[in-house]
Amino acid sequence: MDIIKINNATKYYLIKKNKFYANNNISFNIKQGDIVGFLGKNGAGKTTLIKSICNLIKLDSGSISIKNKEINKNPKVVHDNIGVVLEGARNLYNFLTVDYNLRYFSYLNKIKDSQLELRIKNLLEMFELLEKRKEVVNNLSRGMQQKVAIIIAMLKNPDILILDEPTLGLDIVSKTKMKILLKTLKDKYKKTIIISSHDLDVIENVCNKVVIFEKGKVIKYGSISDLKLKESENRYEIILKSSEAVNLKDISYEKEERIIKLETANLKEILNKINMNSIIKIEKKVKSYAHLYLT
Ligand SMILES: Nc1ncnc2c1ncn2[C@@H]1O[C@H](COP(=O)(O)OP(=O)(O)O)[C@@H](O)[C@H]1O
Ligand SMILES: [Mg+2]
Predict the structure, then answer these.
(1) How far away, in angstroms, is 164 Cα from ligand 2 center?
(2) Whether residue 30 has pLDDT greater than 90
(3) Phi, psi angles (nearest 5°) of residue 245
(4) What is the model's pLDDT at position 229?
(5) How far is the CA of 91 from the centre of ligand 2 (A)?
(6) Nearest ligand to residue 165 Cα
(7) Looking at ligand 1, which atom is closest to the CA of residue 51?
(8) Burial annotation 229-261 (CB, 10 A radius, 16+ → b, else e)
(9) Ligand 2 center to residue 200 CA distance, Å?
(10) Residues 6+ apart with CB under 8 A from 36
(11) How far lies 26's CA from each of 22, 39, 64, 142, in Å?
(12) Strand partners, 259
C-alpha cells in the first residue's frame, strides 16, 4: 500500500519578487514499510518536502496524502501517523532531564499512564540510553541528544518516522554509532521510515529506496540495489600487512603504522603483485549512481 502520496508538490519562496522553487513539481509515492532515503546536496529541497509532508508549511500547488487522506483537509492524519525529528533536534528541553523530556512529550501525545513506563524503558534500552535517564539533556553529547530526539518522535509509536539529517553535526564516532542505530531501527521497528541526508553513505547503508533531489526537483527514485546495478563502478579496498614483503611499485597506496591501504578497480593486477600472506582484507566497494550527483 502507498502510505504517502506526493502529487505535483510545489513550494516557492519570493526572493526579490522572483519565485524561487524550493520544491518544483515533485511526485512520487512511498510504500508502507519502505525505508526511504532523501538524498541531495544542501539546498536541494529535502527539508522543504519533509515540512510539507508534516503539514508545517503549505504547498503552493499540488497535494500530499497520507493513508489516502489529503493532509490539507485532514490535518489530524499527520499527527496520528507521523513522528518527525527536524534538522538540529531543537525540540528538546535542554535543562530538563531525559526522563522529564520523555514524560512531558508522552503527556502531550496522550500516551496512557499504563503504557508509558514500559514504552519509555524499551526505547531507552534500544537506544542504549537507560543509564542517562536522570541526566540533564544539556550534559549529553550531541549524538545522545539526537537519540533522545528520535525517541521522542517514536513515543507515540507512529506508522511513519521521519528523520531529517540524523547524522548532521555528529563527529565520526557518533556518526558511525548513529548509522548502526538506524540499521537496528530498520530491523526492529517495522514501520515506514524517511531519512534525509546529504551523505550517501548513511542512505546506502540504511535505506532500501532512494529519492534523489536536485535543485528542487526529484531527478531519480528507485530501489538502492537497482541504482547500484545499473551504473556501478566496482572498486576494491585492500588492506595489507606492511611487514610482509610486497611489491607495490607504480601503485599508489597509503601507509600506516602496520598496514598498507589501497583502492583499485583492477583487483587482478594487484593480486599478481602482492604476497598473498600479506592480505588482511579485500572489500568490494560499490560506487552507486547516486554518488555522481554528490560529487
Ligand atoms: N523560508 C525560506 N525562505 C526562502 N528560501 C527558503 C526558505 N526555506 C528554504 N529555502 C530555500 O529553499 C531551498 C531548499 O531548502 P531545503 O529544503 O532546506 O534544502 P535541503 O534540506 O535539501 O538542504 C534552499 O535554497 C533554501 O535556501
Ligand atoms: Mg535540509
Answers:
(1) 7
(2) yes
(3) -70, 125
(4) 53
(5) 16
(6) 2
(7) 17
(8) eeeeeeebebbbebeeebeeeeeebeeeeebbe
(9) 14
(10) 30, 192, 193, 194, 195, 207, 208, 209, 210, 211
(11) 10, 14, 10, 33
(12) 241
What per-residue confidence (pLDDT) applies to 245? 61
The answer to whether the CB of 45 is under 6 A from ligand 1 is yes
Which one, of 168, 194, 235, 228, lies nearest residue 38 by Cα? 194
pLDDT above 50 (res 295): no
Query: What is the structure's pLDDT at 285?
Result: 75
Sign of CA dihedral 173, 179, 182, 186: negative
Helix (H) or strand (E) holding 288: none
Instruction: Among 17, 19, 20, say which to mutate for ligand 1: greatest number of ligand atoms within 8 Å of CB.
Output: 20
- Cell (9 digits) for 293: 550527483
Determine the pLDDT at residue 230: 57
| C-alpha span between 74 and 96 (Å, rounded) | 34
**In this structure, are residues 48 and 23 in contact, taking their beta carbons and an 8 Å threshold?**
yes
Which residues does 172 contact at the CB level (< 8 Å), separation at least 6?
A: none
Residue 165 Cα: closest atom of ligand 1: 21
Closest-CA residue, ligand 1 atom 7, reads 13
Ligand nearest to the CA of 294: 1
Residues facing residue 97 across a β-bridge: 136
Give CA angle at 12 (289, 27), nearest 5°: 45
